[in-house]
């Protein structure tokens, strides 16, 4: 029977406020940055904004509210089914009629008028599954260290689904979150070292089997070697950020959004945001992410339930790591990965998933009467 957590009050309002502020900034930025490409592709200035509000924000708020209200332990028995359903959706991306490819990557599923990216949902469903599994180990008084090899096996299975698409950016985020969760439940030093070495080995292997990744890495190190090819994206992002100065050129006044900066409404949103709001706006955005991270860690620390702790740790690791990967790639300190900026970039699948994650965090943060 469905259980609502009605005997608890006072969720973390600072966490809620930081999430609302990030979503609000995302809407404001998208309203300005998407006008050119919306008009060009659909003849409607606000196509992408309306799409984000109706098919991203609205369902995300509804599902996030349900995640906030329903007793967290109610989810646990259904988590394996959620993960299996998500993996099934991951397979659909390879079907000729249903699946869709873009830029050589098979990541989207089209069902009638609805399109979505299953790998975005996987970030949350895998965190829930791993949290439940690790918590069961801890609650059963078994050493988490004894689960090291099964943990590696689970990571390998998930990795195969993502490598085949390929979606290395999402893979990196999921692996980082999983490692953070595992070592919040275990303190084995040798396992830490072993996992780092294994991760480096896998990274080298992924670069070797796909030469374009090696080219991307080389251009990242020396963008001037291919200024109109692979280095063009980074160059235009840096131009946008530099054009913003201290105070920015003003909301909606970006020049890079007029077809100069690739993926201006999705992966490159931060660069446009920095151009329009300047250094001060960029610092504000980073502070909001740090505030979100601080409250997430506080939620995990104050909760005594192992499952809830791990869910909070996994979600915070995922969202903040993804945010700084995106920002790092825009300012040229990391290679371009193609991952969106949480709460800010255009994309209904990732916004829905992030709002559900916030609902779960607020659920965990509630204090008993």
Describe the protein in words.
- The chain is mostly helical and 369 residues long.
- It has one domain.
- 68% of the residues lie in helices and 5% in strands.
- It is built from 14 helices and five strands.
- It has a three-stranded antiparallel beta sheet with strand order 2-3-4, covered by helices on one side.
- A hairpin with a 2-residue loop joins strand 3 and strand 4.
- Helix 12 runs antiparallel to helix 13.
- The two termini are 23 Å apart.
- The model has no long low-confidence stretch (mean pLDDT 84).
- It holds the Pfam family FTSW_RODA_SPOVE.
- GO terms for molecular function: lipid-linked peptidoglycan transporter activity; peptidoglycan glycosyltransferase activity.
Question: How is the topology of this model organized?
Answer:
Elements: E1 8-9, H1 13-33, H2 35-42, H3 47-69, H4 72-76, H5 79-92, E2 99-102, E3 105-111, E4 114-116, H6 118-139, H7 148-164, H8 168-185, H9 189-209, H10 211-221, H11 230-244, H12 269-302, H13 306-330, H14 348-365, E5 367-368
Antiparallel strand pairs: 1-5, 2-3, 3-4
Helix pairs in contact: 1-12, 1-14, 3-14, 5-6, 6-8, 6-13, 6-14, 7-8, 8-13, 9-10, 11-12, 12-13, 13-14
EC number: 2.4.99.28
GO molecular function: lipid-linked peptidoglycan transporter activity; peptidoglycan glycosyltransferase activity
Membrane topology: Multi-pass membrane protein
Sheet/helix structural class: mainly alpha
Mean pLDDT: 84
Task: Write down the secondary-structure element order.
Answer: EHHHHHEEEHHHHHHHHHE
Q: Estimate the helix proportion, in percent.
A: 55-70%
Tally of separate helices: 14
The spatial strand order of the largest sheet comes to 2-3-4
Quantity of strands, as a count: 5
Rg: 21 Å
Shape: globular
Unreliable stretches:
none
Q: Beta-strand percentage?
A: under 5%
Biggest sheet descriptor: 3 strands, antiparallel
Task: Give the count of structural domains.
Answer: 1
* First-to-last CA distance: 23 Å
